[in-house]
Every structure is written in structure tokens, then in C-alpha cells.
């Protein structure tokens, strides 16, 4: 499956609820094919920021451009065709099969009630295959484990063929094998990704750059080496940590004490 990677430019994005500013003045340029990890402690504003990209939180100020277009000035269906999102804890209380859920990813590319074309079917089959969902394709989505559901939701996002893929804690329900498998897989696609991640070591292994949020503000942006410093970890996460390297991948490895 090939997906044309797009660009993402956030410029001075803020998001407020009432008087409270949850995201403050975030600017970030993501190049086509880049994978950005969004880090920060609980409540730092990661999900709030990601929602401004997939058109759920309208920024109070600033702009979000995908492929040079302001997503908030495009139609909802334009946004659905260009921005894919995999979120934590999606509702599952509906009688749809795995294949139905994956096929829903094509809906933004079609007119209301239009059936699946040969192209749609080929994309759906390819996504089921890639995420090892063929044996599960007829199962009801609500009967799947958390990890299986997460794979289905990634497959659904991929058939959208999004210019930018937003992942909000995509490895939340996954065991370590499936965490690695999912991130390796997403990385191998060469698509543009912005992902909120809690595991600092996985973020360092898979992301080109990391963006560290604290109280809604950007505290650091750069390579994993630049962002995962003992100072940043102490200040933002309130942990004392020793930094080393993963001997196999050579990526930064954080050892909290
Ligand atoms: N709609 C809302 N109304 C009021 N406060 C909100 C709203 N959405 C989020 N918040 C608050 O904004 C802050 C940031 O929340 P957000 O979910 O963006 O953080 P996060 O970095 O994704 O956290 P976590 O790692 O725990 O998922 C939190 O204090 C949260 O309670």
C-alpha cells in the first residue's frame, strides 16, 4: 500500500476552553514522511493539540496547515480525506465486523451510499493483510481485544490514505511485541505521522524528532538526543534519570532511578 506523505505546519496554535489555555502558541513544521513523537506528562496538552489537527478542537488562534491548506477552512470531508486519526479508547458498542470498520475509512472518499469500488476493495484487502487482520475480518469489532481493535483502527486510517496520520497513544492497549510491531509498521510506511507517546524509549527508537509539551507549552523540539536530556526529564517529568544508548538500535535509552 503506498500513501503519498503530506506536510503539516502548525503556526502559533493555541486552544482554550473558557478562560483556560490548554495549548499555548505551538509552532511545528513536519516534513513529508517525518515521524514526530509528542511527549509530555499527563495533562500536558498532547491530546488537545492533536485534536486541533484532526479537526475536533478549533484553535482559538493560529493555523494548522496540511499540504499547505488550513484544515479549519476546508470542509469536514476534505479534512477526513487528508488527516487520519487513531485515538485511544474509541467506542466499540456497535454491531460492525472488522472488515466493515476498515471499510469505513473509505467513506470520506465516496458519496453517500456509494458502494465499494474495485479500488476501495483492493485498499481494504491490502490493509487487512498488512495488519494481519485477514483471519479476523468477519469478527464483530466489539468482541476483539484492545490490541486487535487498535490494529483495526490503524487499518481503517490507512485506507483513508491520509496525507497526515495522527496517533494518540496508539500503543496504549498493546503488549510489548505489538507495540514494537505497530511502530515498526507505521515507520516502514514512510508516511507523515504525529504521535502522542508515553514510552520515551519507544519514542526515541522510532521518531525522527520529538516535541515535548508541558502545561500546554512546547518545552523542547529536536532529535531524541536533544529532547531527552536529564534536565528536561527532571523539569518536565519530575524524574531523575540516567541516559544511555540501546546497544542494538543506538537510540537514546532513558533509565529512571
Ligand atoms: N474539554 C475540556 N475542558 C476542560 N479541560 C479540558 C478539556 N479537555 C482537556 N482538558 C484539560 O486540559 C489538560 C490537557 O489535557 P490533554 O488531554 O490534552 O492532556 P494529555 O497531555 O493528552 O494528557 P494524558 O497524557 O493524560 O492523556 C488537562 O488538564 C485536561 O483536564
TrEMBL record:
CDD domains, alphabetized: ABC_Iron-Siderophores_B12_Hemin (cd03214)
PROSITE patterns reported in the protein's UniProt record: ABC_TRANSPORTER_1, ABC_TRANSPORTER_2
Source organism, top-level taxon: Bacteria
ABC transporter domain: residues covered: 8-240
SUPFAM superfamilies assigned to the protein according to its UniProt record, in alphabetical order: P-loop containing nucleoside triphosphate hydrolases
GO molecular function: ATP binding
Keyword ATP-binding: yes
SMART domains: AAA
Entry similarity comment: Belongs to the ABC transporter superfamily.
Protein name (record): ABC transporter ATP-binding protein
Species per Swiss-Prot/TrEMBL record: Devosia yakushimensis
